[in-house]
Fold this sequence. Notes:
Layout: H1 14-32, E1 38-45, E2 52-61, E3 64-71, H2 81-95, E4 100-106, H3 111-116, E5 120-127, E6 132-140
Parallel strand pairs: 3-4
Antiparallel strand pairs: 1-2, 2-3, 4-6, 5-6
Amino acid sequence: MNTEQVILTDTPDAADVAAVREHLSQFNLDATGIDDQRALALLVKDPATGKVLGGLTGRTSRGVLFVEMLFLPDSLRGSGLGSKLLLMAEQEAVRRGCHHGVLYTNTFQAPGFYKKKGWRELGEIPSNPPGTSRLFFSKQLNA
């Protein structure tokens, strides 16, 4: 009898994470016949140094945009750049055939920003520190 080895780690090897992703991608392909998962990144760089100051990262897959991170430093907030990044991500997702978007944020981040951009709150899960929550949003994307 084979007994699989289970390893708990907070520092997984990138190749091991890629192997799990590859297995799941193959399972999804077998189930759906669709193999369209693609990364999406909009990077904001300092023109003098080339250093990344912030940006938006996510992915698209089977008709859905997944926004994973959106960050801008204080000096760039309120400039319209965050709105531009989100709109650019939504437009690229539509070009890739997406009809919906999903994301989550925290109550101490910028949930009002997403609401103003047409994202609808789906649910809330209490998190730490006490009194804060993770908020889940979706948006129907228009062609």
